[in-house]
Amino acid sequence: MVIPTPLLMMLSPIVVFLLGFLGEEMKIEKLREGAAVVMSAVSVAAVYMLYLMLKSTPDGILLFHLQAAPPLGACFEIDMLGILMAFSVTLLTFFATLYSVKYMEHDTRLTEFYTLLAAMSVGMMGVAFAGDLFTLFVFWELMCIASYVLVAFRKDLWGPIEAGFKYFVMSALGAAVIFFAMAFLYGMAGTVNFAQLSDALRGQPLNMWLYMVFGMLVVGFGIKSAIVPMHTWLPDAHPEAPSPISALLSGVVIATGLYGLTRVLFLTFDPGMFKLPIAFLAVLTMTLGNVMALRQSDIKRLLAYSSIAQIGYMLVGLAAGTAYGVMGLFLHVFNHSIMKGMAFLASGSIAHETGTRDIKSLRGVGKMMPLTSLCLFIALLGLGGVPGTNGFISKYHLFSAAFGSGLGWLGIMGVLNSALSMAYYLRIMQVLLASPDEGFKAKEAPVLMVAVTLVMAVLIVFLGVWPAPIIGFATAASEALVNGLSTFIGAVLG
Amino acid sequence: MEAYEMAIPYSLALVLLVPLVSAPVVYYLGKQMGKKVGWVATLPLIVTLLLIFSLAADVNGGGSYSESYGWAPEAGLTFGLLADGLSIWMLITINVLCLGICVYSTTYMEHRFEEEEHQTGVPTPNSAYASYYALYLLYAVGMLGTVLTTNLIQFYLFYELMLVPSWALINNYGYGERERIGMMYFMWTHVGAVILLAGILSSYWITGSFEIAALSGVVGSPIAGWVAFAILIGFFTKMAVFGIHIWLPYAHGEAPTPISALLSPAMIGIGAYAATRLVIIPMFPVFQTFSVVFSFWALLTLVYGGLMALAQDDIKRFLAYSSVSQMGYIFLGLASAAEYGVSGAIFHYITHGFGKCILFGVAGILMAQVGTRSIKEMGGLADRMPWTTVLCLLGFFTIAGVPPTMGFMSKFFIFSGVFNSALSGSPIQLVIAFVSIVMTVLTVGYSLWTVRRIFFGPLPENLKDVKEAPLTMILPLLVFALFSVFIGIYPRFVTDYLLPFFANVF
User: Fold this and answer.
1) Residue A358 sits in which domain range?
2) Which of A48, B11, B401, B438 could make an SS bond with B411 (beta carbons 3.0 to 4.6 A apart)?
3) Which residues in B lie closer than 8 A to residue A390 (C-beta atoms)?
4) Which ipTM was obtained for this model?
5) B171 at interface of A, judged by CB pairs closer than 8 A
6) Structural domains in chain A (count)
């Protein structure tokens, strides 16, 4: 089958690179920035086109084989869940790229920067669309390699180098473990295609090897999504990266890890099997994330720990094991991508203008950068789950799912953790509101950066007050994963 | 007559929308006009008050009025608004207090900012006034919305909307260690609120609906007791019953005084209303099993609050502990689980609202005119400030239940209910009833003693030049006081709503 037009946007890194190179050689100003922004906008549009294509199919799945039919060739199997992930990814990439135009202005090697940014985004999209483990792994590595370089992008500083190296070692280990798990799965089922894998393994009596595969999957994907105790790289890597990259890392890259885990677990196992271990990890992850965040003095590091806590909340949806829980999970993935992305962008603006990330020395920023502070304020309220923001909508679905699947204790741990998390969000808000120390001066961030954060702030409130469309989208996505498994298998094999 | 009352077409949505939409407008105007914007902020509150009054005429005698809007049906959310005999007086109280205190704020906040200018030497920017009044309106929306709502998630939305602006007001405009205290206030009530949320979410899986009316489906479930308890804990933290009251004296003490005058009278009592609406009415059999324990807990609260009040020197902390004690009475009325007790509790909310609002207003006047919060440093002020003295006395009469103020009527209702259920209940309840009625002496005691210490006795040398407060501060409080006496003489304006409502319930 031919590759449909919308998927051609996966070539965007190449386009960005060529145009960027051209721009540099021919001294055409802003050509590469223009190309990067346009390509990221085109990607959002392409995902929307895929969404429309998917809507018009009867069985709710789009199949594209690259060479031969499975189990041989690589293939894309795009369902509603993949679209939702890709939509989160492309939307946040678009915002981050737009923001970078101003934020990264004074850096060098920008052609590399935008190319890698586009490549990372394509990697994540590929993971979301992959129809077999092999394709998934290829795009996974694309995402990883791009992100290693981006974390250590400011290579003249030691912090980013160290953080990037730590991230690289741990993440590469994770990838190796995933690869190992894939080898086991191939050995057991004789295929790497998702549908065939599920057909062969799901419902089989559990044996030692399957438990081992489960463990390896949790560890492998868990490193990427920073599930405690595999989280240690994150609090170093996320703050040291340039802010738009932190936004993407915390907003969607870790969620992509969770997507991989959810997808493969639901394909291979019955939810009853992984409920309890995942619930245990969820409690561990959110509690540690919240407690550690309380102790931070660096605003970006605090947000990084908050991301760990948020991954813990998302795991609650996976632990519930129901379609409703998965709906909550991916609703939160989407909402979190906007909130955390914006929180990193806004704190990036503040660090950009004031030259510090130390929370204590940011007293009174609210008076000097009112718009950026307002945005950060809204993002923090959203992350804390205050009603009226989209963060509340998805959190209440997550915890409600826990109560609904008989894991009441998990729901209670969730709401208490969520309350605890307000303590450190409030601390930042207090600092923003305080009256400034003498001699502390800053001015509002450049218009473009403020505009990006403002649009995202509006989205947070809008989706919090009128959540119906995104809930409908996430419901369709979760149905596709949990209840639509048989149609999925039927569509591929039949 | 009928046609005249219908002259203002009302919509409950407008009651929330008018102040909500006005908040950014007030902020914008405030940046231009500075302190005068307080008067603009009263306008939306006047509009909502007119709407509520015209509504009140129609739901008289057990009627009700509701509106429903689609919100997110996929997630089980509707946006419903309901006004009936239970909520109408809550709405009136909240709205009248917000309006009066808004007028009061115009003078008080000016004084507050001048004081700060004096200390720091930095002129107050217009934006300080602008955000004060914008947050003030949002806070009012939060309180009105909590009372009106019919859906549990919507309820939680407004419940938290009360919290965030009030936190910001304490954090920005409070006294003392306002940041630490703001944080303390937020965390205590937020943890209470999420426990409430846990109760709401587990009720959803029993009843399959987020409607408040559907909560009756929880009765009979094996975890009904836990669900009711979780929901109640959320409200008890807000009401600051004994044991989970820690945040209250700090928050009410250090909040800017107009905000104390809303926190304590208007907001914390909403916990009692919500407990009635969400637990006592739909889950009555479950609540009844808690009756004895809660009566004891209420007794503990009212005695503890009263004794602590006696020990205070800071007038605002004194009033805060007195609020704890009064919440004990309201809690006692609820715990009696009887028609008169529960309607008395709601009645006492109104009483306490007006009474305590007058008293916090007086505290603010003293802070502005005398310049101290320490009761010890004051004395003999009656000659200097006759109006304030009268107001203070009437405020104390109201909360202490001295006739002819309405406090007498509401306490009478509460104790009717308490004795009613005690006589048919266990001997322990009878003991609790006796002890609690004896303990009303405490309220009268700390009230009159404080009045004597502040307003009578010798006037200290340094207070010779104290002047009476300006009219904008006196007048709203005077309206509250007259209202208290009026309802004390004609209680049927309130009971005509409450009693028919509760007659249908029990």
Assistant:
1) 5-493
2) B401
3) none
4) 0.86
5) yes
6) 1
